[in-house]
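so my prof wants the structure for this chain in the tokens format not the other one, which i didnt know existed until like an hour ago. anyway here's the sequence
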Amino acid sequence: MSQSRGASVSHLVLPAGPADAEALAHVHVRAWRETYRGMLPDAYLARMSEADYARRFRRALTHPGPHEVTLAAVAREGLVGYAQGGPSRARIEGEAEIATLYLLPEVQGLGLGRRLLVGAARALAAQGARSLMISVLRDNLRARGFYEHLGGAAEPPRPERGPGGALLHEVAYRWPDISTVI
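here's what i got, hopefully its the right format
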């Protein structure tokens, strides 16, 4: 059995709800601490609070904005990843944006990231989105490779102020036709 088949059998991708807030916060904080070590200030990563993020998730899932979607990847051991998306921050007509997509390290490489991205794209397309984008840190080479493998077209890096005021560079990946993702 291949790894991606194993992921299909042992992992589910489902809409997240307010009751998932604590588990989503755990995945978010752990993924940030492991993914962004060396890219973001250590002090910022150490200060991240699961309780604060749980409150944010609960609020967002209790009162979602128009056309927002949050999907959770769930295994026997619990929630192991998630994706959130909605209308693009640039407010481009018909463009959706994946705001976050994170997996715990132990389930990376099993096809769950692809399933979360495809599921979110499918839900956003059903709400009228015609194109899709996601931004990643320029130095997050693993994520960049993932989006390139899935056909995302990279734009030139752009400077952004990150946590703690650090100057970071983000790369936007775009799929002009969302149907190529789904």
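also thought this was worth mentioning. Residues 26 and 112 are 17 Å apart (CA to CA).
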